[in-house]
Amino acid sequence: MQPGDGPPQTVGLIVKAADPNTSSYEAKRLIKEAVDPKALKLEVSKLENLANNAVLVECKSKSDLEFLEKELSKLCTVT
């Protein structure tokens, strides 16, 4: 197997709502309302609910993930 064979690598970020009583479904909604990947030209490959009211956001590149993290850090509703 050569490097680059197999599934493409992604990088992920775990996001939670600032309010601990907020569900992962609500946290996902907050993320979707605040960040539009198409408008920001980000390649988000996955947005998945996790345990403990968290959401996994996967991007196709580290630069996309860092930009997304910067955008999310501006929000007071998620951490």
What does this entry look like structurally?
It is a single chain. With 79 residues, the chain is α+β, with helices and mostly antiparallel strands. It has one domain: Alpha-Beta Plaits, CATH 3.30.70. It is built from three helices and three strands; from the N terminus they run βααββα. A three-stranded antiparallel beta sheet has the order 1-3-2. The mean pLDDT is 85.
Question: How is the secondary structure organized here?
Answer:
Layout: E1 11-16, H1 24-34, H2 37-40, E2 44-49, E3 54-59, H3 62-73
Antiparallel strand pairs: 1-3, 2-3
What topology, given as strand order, has the largest sheet? 1-3-2
Strand percent estimate: 15-25%
Amount of helix: 25-40%
| Total number of beta strands | 3
Q: Quote the distance from N terminus to C terminus.
A: 39 Å
